[in-house]
User: Fold this.
Amino acid sequence: MILDHLENMHKYLKIHPAMMAVLEFLETVDLDGFTAGRREISGDKIFALATTGQGKGLADAKLKSHKKYIDIEYAVSGIDNIGWKPLSRCCCPEGEYDSESDVTFFSDAPDTWFGLVPQTFAVFFPEDAHAPLAVNGLLHKIVIKMQI
Assistant:
């Protein structure tokens, strides 16, 4: 997992060939105007999903992991509370891996929580279980999916 400010994203360009496209998208798109839906950056290989609304709260946030995509979560406004735990320490899956949705949910408790504040991003790799949207208030965030 990586947690940093958008102004530092250039430091991570070598972790994946698509990072430059992600950075260019975040620097050029009207983030305030992108409040819902999906925008393709490079077809199904890189795309962005916008969410605006009420969070789930700590009690309803579930750890999840992905096999096909890396998640880059960016806070536009509001603070998203996100739980994190290494996937290797998750022992309580809730059902099987859903290959169509690329997700496995877990009932494990996160090892740690952090606040994703505006203009910061978090990168979650397949080995990172994460529980986003644990905020009780309003949130506007963008999740960029990068195919592995």
Notes: The mean pLDDT is 96. The chain is about 5% helix and 45% strand. The longest strand covers residues 138-147. The first helix runs from residue 19 to 28.
